[in-house]
Amino acid sequence: MAHYRASIDTKRPRAEVFAYLSDFSTTREWDPGVVDAERLNGQTVGEGSEFRLVARFLGRKNELTYRIVEYDPPVAVTLLGANATVVSRDRITFEITAQGTRITYDADLALKGLLRIADPVWGSRSPAWAIEVSRVSGEPSTAHSRNAWTRSR
Q1: Cα 39 to Cα 50: distance, rounded to the nearest angstrom
Q2: Which of 142, 140, 108, 114 is nearest to 8 (CA)?
Q3: Residue 152 has what pLDDT?
Q4: Is the entire prediction scored with pTM above 0.85?
Q5: CA end-to-end distance (rounded Å), the chain
Q6: Is the dihedral of CA 130, 134, 135, 137 positive or negative?
Q7: How many CB atoms lie within 10 A of CB 35?
Q8: Alpha carbons 56 and 44: distance in angstroms, whole number
Q9: How confident is the model over 118-142, as pLDDT tens digits?
Q10: Are 37 and 25 a contacting pair, CB within 8 Å?
Q11: From 54, 70, 84, 150, which residue has the greatest number of CB atoms within 10 Å?
């Protein structure tokens, strides 16, 4: 299992960044590994909302379906994503700071079946989402631990 945790500070208000990041149809705008993202059900984002993401990993496109399992605006959102080869639990929290908002992204990723052998490779990948969030927001990156991938058992 791979674990990733990173934080980034932004001057934008907490409610604004919560609305933007909890709508996983925007993921293509801030995660360079995602090549396509769409909302699957309904117009309002909330608990039970589902999203289809296509991510490029090791030269291949992989489709994942994510579902919001915790929706606590503007404090936290948790999504579970899965396909035939991987399960991902992504939790994003939003903390008010003196300068704006601290966003913390905490993800656990586990390969399924025989692919678990590849966990060391999977766990060594370091997504650049924090850099991309700062690019989209037009602010310089103030990411903390953006390369904080760790492998756990």
Answers
A1: 6
A2: 142
A3: 34
A4: no
A5: 6
A6: positive
A7: 13
A8: 27
A9: 454 444 444 444 444 544 455 544 5
A10: yes
A11: 54
